[in-house]
């Protein structure tokens, strides 16, 4: 094991400096306000959970979990995502009458990274979960809320790609016959390796018609026309039911007046293995990876003893800030620079200015080596130096 440098941090962990922190706080507050306007209630869950519950229920790969032991020998994990912890809380404490729940969260999550990955091991998510509502209206609601929240942040352009994981599963099973062969082909979609997908299809022992259907599957991207094209490819009844759900979802989003930011991408799959139906990802031109994602997970709560469905979304604040593309000015509005004789006067003035809503720094002149360097840190500066009444300049 190599010796650590003095300022070295654990792999994937980052410091957040004042300007970025202020921007993150503002964006988080904006999104939280919009979420509350839609009737969702915020909750918190522990950063540490039992591996036997959240660790196994989560869709995050086992090697990405941060694990440790408590004093009784139980394996704990730092929460790798928020959906599973909220499912635990909902199933154990909130779903007594099986009425729809609208819950929200804003929390850091933790995922171990490999050295070559270059990805954060800790990042903040803000999102919602609509629990115990099996209707497509619930799927439409969380997508509409997502769009509304993003617009409130001032992000210029974004697009939401929508798919249906059950359609992909049923279509592949219909042609390939076994889950093993279907999963093998699905791996290319996870990696968005469409060249590898085509090569794999061409190598399969299938009729030319079935090979062409698998190749035509990659064309299922676009607007309303995708629905009819998908119907032409699928023969399985469960697969057709999935397409009908997407058709209903499109009508729902038209009713919201939010269809312009959407496109269908029926090749979309997710590394989050608990998704069972409609799923989606949010993209921005300025960021190479999704800034958010979500979908329906109708089996997750069964792991906690409740037979009900749910849907939701999570936004990555780090990627969203990158998409927004600017940082806030975190400089305090006013610095009052004072000498010993006028310290009490300075304290009183600072108190008054803070009551007016200003951010105020009180600085003893003897603690400043260079006045010019000090004044450049603040939007405004007031001098209270010397005897009262003799000097009070801005």
From TrEMBL:
| Main localisation | cytoplasm
Q: Where are the transmembrane segments?
A: none
The protein's UniProt keywords, in alphabetical order, are: Amino-acid biosynthesis, Cytoplasm, Glycosyltransferase, Histidine biosynthesis, Transferase
Transferase as a keyword of this entry, yes or no, is yes
Q: Which InterPro entries match?
A: aa-tRNA-synth_II (IPR006195), aa-tRNA-synth_II/BPL/LPL (IPR045864), HisRS-like_core (IPR041715), HisRS/HisZ (IPR004516), HisZ (IPR004517), HisZ-C (IPR053846)
- Pathway involvement of the protein, from the record: Amino-acid biosynthesis; L-histidine biosynthesis; L-histidine from 5-phospho-alpha-D-ribose 1-diphosphate: step 1/9
- Where does it live in the cell? Cytoplasm
Where does the Aminoacyl-transfer RNA synthetases class-II family profile domain lie? 12-332
GO molecular function terms noted in the UniProt entry: glycosyltransferase activity
Q: Record's CDD domains? A: HisRS-like_core (cd00773)
HAMAP family this protein is in? HisZ
Summary of subunit composition and partner proteins: Heteromultimer composed of HisG and HisZ subunits.
Concerning its family, UniProt says: Belongs to the class-II aminoacyl-tRNA synthetase family. HisZ subfamily.
Q: What does this protein do?
A: Required for the first step of histidine biosynthesis. May allow the feedback regulation of ATP phosphoribosyltransferase activity by histidine.
Any further remark recorded for this protein: This function is generally fulfilled by the C-terminal part of HisG, which is missing in some bacteria such as this one.
Task: Return the protein name.
Answer: ATP phosphoribosyltransferase regulatory subunit
The species this protein was found in: Bacillus spongiae
- Gene name of the record: hisZ
């Amino acid at each position: 094991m190599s010796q650590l440098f003095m300022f070295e941090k654990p792999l994937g962990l980052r410091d957040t400096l004042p300007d970025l922190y202020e921007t993150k706080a503002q964006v988080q507050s904006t999104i939280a306000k919009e979420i509350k306007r839609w009737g969702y209630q915020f909750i918190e869950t522990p950063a540490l959970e039992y591996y036997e519950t959240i660790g196994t229920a989560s869709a995050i790969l086992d090697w990405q979990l941060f694990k440790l032991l408590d004093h009784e020998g139980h394996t704990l994990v730092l929460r790798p995502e928020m959906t599973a912890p909220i499912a635990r809380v909902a199933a154990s404490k909130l779903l007594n009458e099986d009425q729809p729940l609208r819950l929200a969260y804003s929390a850091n999550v933790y995922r171990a990274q490999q050295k070559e990955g270059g990805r954060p091991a800790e990042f903040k998510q803000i999102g919602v979960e609509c629990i115990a509502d099996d209707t497509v209206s619930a799927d439409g609601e969380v997508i509409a809320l997502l769009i509304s929240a993003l617009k409130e942040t001032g992000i210029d352009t974004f697009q939401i790609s929508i798919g249906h994981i059950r359609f992909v599963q049923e279509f592949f099973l219909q042609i390939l016959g076994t889950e093993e062969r279907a999963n093998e082909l699905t791996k290319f979609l996870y990696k968005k390796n469409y060249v590898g997908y085509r090569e794999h299809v061409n190598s399969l022992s299938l009729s030319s018609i079935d090979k062409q259907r698998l190749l035509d599957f990659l064309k299922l991207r676009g607007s309303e026309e995708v629905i009819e094209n998908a119907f032409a490819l699928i023969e399985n009844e469960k697969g057709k039911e999935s397409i009908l759900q997407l058709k209903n979802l499109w009508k729902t989003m038209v009713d919201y007046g939010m269809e312009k930011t959407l496109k269908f991408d029926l090749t979309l799959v997710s590394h989050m293995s608990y998704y069972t139906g409609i799923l989606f990802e949010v993209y921005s031109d300025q960021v190479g990876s999704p800034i958010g994602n979500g979908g329906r997970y109708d089996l997750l709560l069964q792991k906690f003893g409740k037979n009900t469905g749910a849907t939701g979304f999570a936004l990555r604040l780090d990627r969203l800030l990158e998409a927004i593309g600017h940082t806030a000015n975190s400089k305090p509005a006013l610095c009052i620079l004072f000498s010993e004789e006028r310290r009490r006067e300075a304290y009183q003035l600072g108190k008054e200015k803070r009551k007016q809503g200003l951010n105020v720094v009180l600085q003893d002149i003897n603690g400043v080596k260079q006045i010019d360097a000090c004044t450049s840190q603040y939007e405004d500066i007031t001098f209270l130096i010397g005897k009262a009444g003799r000097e009070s300049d801005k």
